[in-house]
Amino acid sequence: MWITQADDITTFMMFIYIIITYILLYMYKLYVYRRMVWRGREEEKKRKNKRGEEKKERKKNTKDFKAWIPVFTGMTEGRG
Hints:
Largest sheet: none
Shape: rod-shaped
Structural class: mainly alpha
Strand content: under 5%
Order of helices and strands: H
Number of helices: 1
Mean pLDDT: 74
Low-confidence stretches: none
Helix content: over 70%
Radius of gyration: 34 Å
């Protein structure tokens, strides 16, 4: 069935225009939401990474300190 009157054609075109606009806005909304989620995940990874590095650094420092404990306490007489 063909649309013959001009009013029907303009109405039909407006209807299609509204649908396309709605779809584009929805896709943009999804894109923004995904970008926010992705950034949040990246920030979380960076925070966890920093925490892990701090823990490693602390462990290394305590190992170095533990290596010096015998020297401080004078327990090196029996070695070497």
